[in-house]
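Submission checklist for the structure archive. All mandatory fields must be present; incomplete records are returned to the submitter.

[x] Identifier: DinB family protein
[x] Organism: Plantactinospora mayteni
[x] Residue count: 164
[x] Sequence attached
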Amino acid sequence: MIESQREAVPRNDGGELDTALAFLSFARSCVLKKVAGLNEEQLRRRLVVSDTTLLGLVQHLTDAERYWFGYTLAGDPRYADVDFDMVVEPDRSPDQIIVGYRTAIADSDAHIIAAAGPDVLTAQPVGDSPRTLRWVLAHMTSETIRHAGHADILRELIDGATGR
């Protein structure tokens, strides 16, 4: 099968933060590519036993961006209680969800840049102690890549589009 959504992995190697952010950005881009060009029915279509949908994955990742970078790293209390839900309410449009994700990404990137290095500690503890930005970046990259893989499968089931 030909990969119709192929994108090269980043070649950034200009330092730890540059490389980490490049791979997180790549993962985010892969998720956004999986929802591009689909209609609302396709984005909300449930193809697995769980409540996972393409739109639900984007909503979940929006909450993760806000929680891990907004609340945990930067200490913004507005994001302390996100629910990480994958069920998208019918009154929320795909555009609202996708724009929300793009906004959360921009906010997260601003928090990462403001942190002044991978050794900075989070404002909120993870478990019983703060973690470094390095840890949060690794966690969010793995979370985003994991869900990009789910999105790959759902998109292929919807219209046959493949690739990262």
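[x] Structure attached
Curator remark: Residues 52 and 151 are 9 Å apart (CA to CA). The chain is about 55% helix and 0% strand.
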